[in-house]
Specification:
Structural class: alpha/beta
Number of strands: 7
Strand content: 25-35%
Number of domains: 1
CATH superfamily: Vaccinia Virus protein VP39
Shape: globular
């Protein structure tokens, strides 16, 4: 990785695994990107990244130098604005981790290109037994990610259960692609660094 970042928290193995499906030169939206643990890593590998969050200060703090040209940072608050703030923009990849705002679920699917890749991972009902979030408004209902996206996209992988690493949590996670994407080769299960873009 280019030295464009300070020490970052570890990435999600789910995101890193399925980021192998992103195509070269595609635009990727990292929604609710936080400190940029995924956006910065993927930008360092040449992807065109739009990193969006209501508080972008942690992302700027994690950049060791100037913002690279292929990393666009947007400060947006989807929960207090008039809704989806990306208009009719399309993305070849969308990443969402540890974030849930139900009113924009349909917008997320609409924003993906016909051959794009959605990677989504967040907390689910049952997580309250382990730690926060415990408010049902921020926890997926059983099968909710599947129900939200399986009609609109082609699901490549889906999990709903308890994880223990880095600490116990109940999560759901999905990888789905646009309906025109064909010939998908499922990436192997390994917590590897994000690969370079593929052609």
């Amino acid at each position: 990785m280019q030295s464009i970042a300070r020490d970052l928290p570890p990435p999600s193995p789910w995101v890193m695994r399925f980021s192998r499906l992103f195509r070269e030169n595609t635009r990727i939206l990292d929604l609710a990107c936080g400190g940029g643990r995924h956006a910065i890593r993927l930008a360092a590998r040449g992807y065109q990244i739009v990193a969006a969050d209501r508080n972008t200060a942690p992302l700027y703090e994690n950049l060791s130098d100037a913002v690279p040209r292929n990393l666009e940072i947007r400060e947006v608050d989807l929960e207090t604005s008039t809704g989806w703030t990306f208009g009719d923009e399309k993305f070849g990849g969308i990443i969402i981790t540890n974030y849930l705002h139900r009113p924009i679920m349909a917008d997320i699917a609409d924003a993906l290109t016909d051959e794009g890749v959605l990677i989504y991972e967040t907390f689910a009902a049952g997580n309250e037994k382990f730690r926060k979030p415990s408010n049902p408004d921020f926890l997926l209902r059983p099968g909710e990610l599947w129900d939200c996206f399986s009609d609109r996209l082609s699901v490549i992988a889906y999990e709903d259960g308890i994880v223990t690493d880095p600490r116990p949590a109940r999560i759901q996670r999905i990888c789905a692609v646009g309906k025109k994407r064909e010939g998908i080769e499922i990436p192997p299960c390994q917590a590897a660094a994000a690969p370079a873009p593929t052609s």
